[in-house]
Amino acid sequence: MARAAAQGGAVALLCLGIDNLALVNESLGHAAGDALLAAIAARLRPCIGEHDTVARLGDNEFLAVLGRVGGSADVAPRCRAIFAALAPAFALEQQQLHAHASIGVALYPQDGGDSATLTRYADLALSRARADGGGQCQFFSAEMNQRTLERIGMEAALRLAIAGDELQLLYQPLADLQTGDLCSLEALVRWQHPQQGLLSANRFIPVAEEAGLTAALGLWVLRRACRDLRAWRDAERPAVPVAINISPRQFHDPGLADSVAAALAEHGLAAGALTLEITEAALLRDGAAASVCLERLRALGVGLTLDDFGTGSSSLSNLKRFPFDAVKIDSAFIRDVASDSGDAALSKTIISMAHNLGIKVVAEGVETEAQCDFLRRNMCDQIQGYLFAPPLPCAELDVLLREPRRLPAHLLRIQRQKRSLLLVDDEQNIVAALKRLLRRDDYQIYTANSGQEGLDLLAQHAVDVIVSDQRMPGMIGADFLRKAKQLYPETIRIMLSGYTELQSVTDAVNEGAIYKFLTKPWEDELLRGHIAEAFRMKEIADDNERLNLEVRTANHELASTNRRMEELLKQKQQQIHRDEISLSIARELLQHLPLPVIGMDDGGMIAFINGAAAALFHGGGALLGNEASCVLPELFPADGAAPHDGAGHNSHLHQADIGGLRYAVMVYPMGESSASRGSLITLSRCEVAP
Ligand code: C2E
Ligand code: MG
Ligand code: MG
C-alpha cells in the first residue's frame, strides 16, 4: 500500500471463496477436500504476477493481493482469468469435480486505507457475490457497507427492544363465514423503532433470525399474548382463541412445547385458548422431526394452523401427514381469486381437500366483497383481511370485543337472495328498452355496455342470469359469456343478437357457454317468458347446490369429528403403551426385591410370586394359579386371621414358621390406587432372640 501511495497506483484485495468445499468434505472426506484445495492453489499460481501474493486464509477462502493495478477496470480481467483457470474439472478420487468459486474485491485506496478494513470489505463483497448465486465476482461498494452497518445497528436496537419490552402486539380479528361472527384473533408483532417508526414483522423478523434472537422474540410474543388473553378473560370479553406465529427456527427449538405449557400455566389459561401458526417452510427441512414437534404441541392441546399455504412446497400431502386443525390460504392466491381462474381453481382444490380431511380453511388478505363472495360460495370457513378488520391495537380491539362486529348477511355461506339479472349491450337504447320491459318482474337489474364492464359487475355482484348482445366493440358476446362461464359457471347465460356470425356462436353454444340463443328484434312476452324460465332453472340448480352445501357441511363436520376421534384414539393407545411399560417396570422391580412378595387375586388365588418368594418356597412354579390357603397353609394361621378375608381394608401382621425359621407375615389389602381386590403378602425374617 505504501508503494501504491508513493507511485499513484492501487492495490486490489481479492477474497476467493470455494463454495462447494464443505460438500466435498462431507461427501468424499477431508483428505479429498485438502487435495482439492492444493489443486486449486496450483492453478492459482500462474494467475499471480510478480507483484502479487496469494495465500489461503483458512477454511474455504483464499486471499490474493494484486500489488499493481490501475483501478477496478484492471481487476475484472484478472478475476475472469482466475475463473477460467478454475473452470476445468479436477480429477480427485477417480471423480471429476468442479470447484464453485466466488470472488469479492476491495481496492486501496478508494475503499479503505488499512488492511483490516480492506479485508472486511472484500469479505463483505464475497458474501454478496454468494448471495447473488455465486460463481461471480463482486466489487465492494459503500452502499453494501451502509446496509451492513444498518443491519448491525438494527440488531443491537432489537436486542434492547425485546429486553426493554418495546415491542407491541396487534390483533387481527377473523370472521366465520357461516355465522358472520368474530371467531378468532391473530397476534402480529410490531416494533416502534426509535428512528424508523412502526416496523412491521417482515422488516425485523429476518434480522432477529440472523442475530439469534428468534427464541427471545418468540417467547416475548407468547407471553404477551397469554397476558392479553388473561386480561380479556378477566374482563369477561368473548372467549375467542388467539393465534401466534411461530417462525421456522422457533418451531425446531426443542424447548418450544415446554415454553408454551409454562406460559399457559402462568396465566391460568386452557390450552385451547392458543393456536400456533406454522408455515410450510418449517416443515420442509425434516419431515420426521417436524412430525415429532407437532405431536408434542398437539398433546398439549393447543390448536395448530398451517400458515401461508401455497407459498412453500404447497404440498397437499402436508395436510394429510401432519395434525393441523386449519390451513390458511396465502393472500397471494386470494388477491385475484374472483377474477383469475387459476387462483380460483387452486383455492377450490385446497378447500375441498382440507374439508375431506376435516381441516378448516381460512383465507388470508381478504379485502373486497368479490373475494369474500367467491370464498363464501366455495365453502371457505373463515376470512381474515381488511374487509372484516385490520390488525388492531389492544384498546381498539377491546371496543370490537364489547360490541361484536359481524359480516353482513349477503356475505355468509348459506342464504337466499333477490333474483338478479345482468344486461349487456353496447347500444344504450336496447339496454333501456329491456330494462323497461322487465321492470314488472321484480329482478335486481345490472346493466353494462361492454363485455369488460359486464365482467367487472360480475366481480362485484352475485348474478343469476346474464343476457348479452353478440356484436360489441372490444369483446364479442360469445367471448364475454365464455369468460363468465369460466369464472361463474353457475350463472345462466342467454345471447340476444340480431347478428349471427355463425361460427363463434355455435362454438360458444357447443362449449356450454350459452344456454339459449334469442334473436333481435324480440317479441316482448316471449323474451320475458324465456328469462323467467332461465331463473327457474337457476333456482333448481341453486336448491341442488344448497342441498349439496348442507351435505358437504355435514360431511365436513363428520370428517373433523373422525379426525378428532383418531387423535384421541392415538393418544389413548400411547397411554396404554406407557401403562404397559410402567407395569412391566413395576413387575421387574418386585421380581428383584430381596423381600419375598406374593400377590393374591380377589378369589384367593396366587397371581404373582417374586424371585425371593420362589426361592423360599422351592421354585414356586407350582404355586402360581393355585389357591393360596391350600398350597401355602403356613401363611394361614388356624386362629382365622387369614391373609385373605375379602372385606378387610387394613393391613395386618402375624408370624409363621417356614422351613424351620420364623417369619413376620405382612398382608396388605389392595385396591387403594387400583381396581384390584386382592392382597399382597410380604415375608421378613423375625429377629431370633439370643
Ligand atoms: P401472516 O402470519 O400471514 O400474517 C398476515 C399478514 O397479512 C399480516 O402482515 C397482516 O397485517 C397482513 N394482512 C392482514 N389483512 C390483510 C389484507 O387484507 N391485505 C393484505 N395485503 N395484508 C393483510 P404483518 O403483520 O406485516 O406480518 C407479516 C408476517 O410476519 C406474518 O404473516 C407472519 O408470518 C410474520 N409475523 C407476524 N408477527 C409475527 C410474530 O409474532 N412472530 C413470528 N415468528 N412471525 C410473525
Ligand atoms: Mg400467520
Ligand atoms: Mg399467512
How many E-type strands? 26
Question: What is the overall silhouette?
Answer: flat
Number of helices: 24
Structural class: alpha/beta
CATH architecture of the largest domain: Alpha-Beta Barrel
The CATH homologous superfamily of the largest domain corresponds to EAL domain
| Low-confidence region ranges | 644-648
CATH class of the largest domain: Alpha Beta
* Main sheet attributes: strand count, strand direction, barrel closure: 8 strands, mixed, barrel
**Strand order across the biggest sheet?**
8-9-11-12-13-14-15-16
Radius of gyration: 39 Å
The ligands bound in this entry are: ligand C2E, magnesium ion
CATH topology of the largest domain: TIM Barrel
Total domain count:
4
Strand content: 15-25%
Could you describe the 3D structure shown?
The chain is α/β, with parallel strands linked by helices and 690 residues long. The chain has four domains: 2-146, 2-Layer Sandwich (Alpha-Beta Plaits); 165-405, TIM Barrel (Alpha-Beta Barrel); 420-543, Response regulator (Rossmann fold, 3-Layer(aba) Sandwich); 593-685, PAS domain (Beta-Lactamase, 2-Layer Sandwich), CATH 3.30.450. The protein is 45% helix and 22% strand. The chain has an eight-stranded mixed barrel, surrounded by four helices. A five-stranded mixed sheet has the order 2-3-1-6-7. A five-stranded parallel sheet has the order 18-17-19-20-21, sandwiched between helices. The radius of gyration is 39 Å and the shape is flat. It binds ligand C2E and magnesium ion (2 copies). One magnesium ion binds next to loops.
